[in-house]
Amino acid sequence: MSEPARKARVGGFALFTLLLTAAFVALGVWQLQRRTAKHELIAALTERLAAAPVALPPPALWASLNPARDEFRRVRFTATYAALPDAMVYSSGSAVRKDASGPGTWAFLPARLPTGETVVIDAGFVENTMQDRGVEDRAVKKLVTGQPVALTGYLRFPEAPGWLTPAEDRDKRLWFVRDHLGIASALGWGAVAPFYVDLEHPAPANGIPRPGPLDVNLKDDHLQYAMTWFTLAGAVLIAFAVWARGRRQS
Question: What is the pTM of this model?
Answer without folding.
Answer: 0.78
